[in-house]
Amino acid sequence: MRDHSLEVHGCNHYDATGAISTPIYLSATFRHPGFKQSTGYDYGRVANPTRDQLEAMITLLERGGRSWAVSSGMAAINLVFLLFNAGDHVLLSEDLYGGTVRLANEVYGQYGIDFEYIDTSDFDLVARHIKANTRGIFIETPSNPMMLISDVRRLAGLAHAHDALLIVDNTFLSPHFQKPLTLGADIVVHSGTKYLCGHNDIIAGFVTVKDKDSAVAEKIEFFVKSEGPNMSAMDAWLMLRSIKTLGIRVEKQAANALQIAQWLQTQPQVTHVYYPGLPEHPGYALQKAQATGFGGMLSFKVQSAELAQAVLGRLHLISFAESLGSVESLLTYPLVQTHAEMPAELLARTGLDDKLLRLSVGIEDVEDILADLAQALQG
Questions:
Q1: Residue 273's closest CA among 282, 263, 261, 283?
Q2: Interatomic CA distance for residues 323 and 30, integer angstroms
Q3: What pTM, to 2 d.p., does this model score?
Q4: 169 in active site
Q5: How confident is the model at residue 60 (pLDDT cuts 50, 70, 90)?
Q6: Which of 25, 51, 95, 97 is catalytic?
Q7: 59 confidence band (pLDDT: 50, 70, 90)
Q8: Which of 45, 63, 314, 349 is an active site residue?
Q9: Domain extents for the chain?
Q10: What DSSP string runs through 251-275?
Q11: Is 179 one of the catalytic residues?
């Protein structure tokens, strides 16, 4: 099946009732038929039928081998960072969600893991920074919030040539537009809160591995079982419901985003527009080669910090709020919200400053979004 069909039907195995919607199994424990006998379910932290359906769905969409549904995107990234040991060197995109940087620097940095931030859209630069002890390359593509595009295929080849893992945060595009595992990546992570959910009512995360029988999969399974970051059955059901409309949502958001990006380029108050769907974007050709869409995220800079902050207070339809990927359009001020704890050096290197605004484009009529932006920019 193709993506739209998979999103609707997934791997649902209809039970005796013929229920179209997967049942919600709100059970912490499961009855055994007899001694040393099991239905396949023992304790809810280890496995739950509703969560299993969701994990199988994500695995199908990512064309992977095994997935885990967990309590947040940060819980998913934490599972990946647990794969590294003291003395390991890990390269990360320097334009990266601030929470990932905080987890790397302030939590795992104390355990002797050497995290290095680099412009992963520059393949040759990444190649020059590989060390004998490099064990992983962690990228966002498109990156957050400057929308840089990294070459998944080439970075996967580079990582594997040095016995390292390539991990891709696929939150911005979702598996509907980009499937990093098919391009050679080893692990994909998501903040499922964003596009996979799409309704701002679930906090969720996912990890998907390419090979379900690999040592990496075995380790992640052990970490999940031991630490218990699993998603609840209720949230798993809500996520299954949400994914049914993933394709039509993200395609509408991407279409809106392109129109808005083109319009922003014509506005005198706007100095820069960052959207990979614009032909002049430096990563445009690469994005077309490794994905089937450009997504619903864009960033732009205005003439001054004062204007940027004023715009946030003038919005009517668009909400000034953190997060992204929902059906509602959201405008974020990364410097003081999503990237508030970003080291000053990384802010300077990426160009993230007090004039930058990040827009998560919703599914509203694009004319209404443009009208709200116009009145907010003009004051």
A1: 261
A2: 36
A3: 0.96
A4: yes
A5: very high
A6: 97
A7: very high
A8: 45
A9: 3-243, 246-378
A10: HHHHHHHHHHHHHHTT-TTEEEEE-
A11: no
Rounded to an integer, the average pLDDT of 93-109 is 95
Does residue 47 sit in helix, strand or coil?
Answer: coil
Do residues 320 and 312 make contact, with C-beta atoms less than 8 angstroms apart?
yes
86's tokens: 């003291």
Q: Is the pLDDT of residue 13 over 80?
A: no
Token couple for 135:
């064990």
What are the residue ranges of helices labelled H in the chain?
3-9, 49-62, 73-81, 98-102, 123-129, 152-161, 174-177, 215-227, 233-243, 246-264, 284-290, 305-314, 344-350, 366-378
Catalytic, 97? Answer yes
pLDDT above 70 covers what percent of the chain? 100
Tokens of 238: 């809500």
Q: How far is CA 284 from CA 121, 181, 280, in A?
A: 12, 20, 7
Distance CA 207, CA 24 (A): 22
Q: Which of 66, 135, 194, 249 is the catalytic position?
A: 194
190-243 tens-digit pLDDT:
999 999 999 999 999 999 999 999 999 999 999 999 999 999 999 999 999 999
Q: Cα separation of 334 and 339, whole Å? A: 5
Q: Do domains 3-243 and 246-378 have the same CATH topology?
A: no
User: Looking at the DSSP assignment, which residues form a beta bridge with residue 43?
Assistant: 29
Among residues 88, 169, 186, 235, which one is catalytic?
169
Q: And the tokens for 177?
A: 């537009």
246-378 CATH choice from 3.30.70.3290, 3.90.1150.10, 3.10.129.10, 3.30.360.10: 3.90.1150.10
| Closest residue by Cα to residue 72 from 202, 173, 200, 199 | 202
Task: Give the separation between CA 182 and CA 62, rounded to whole angstroms.
Answer: 8
Answer yes or no: are the C-beta atoms of 81 and 74 closer than 8 Å: no
**In this structure, which amino acid lies at residue 182?**
T
CATH topology of domain 3-243: Aspartate Aminotransferase; domain 2 (3.40.640)
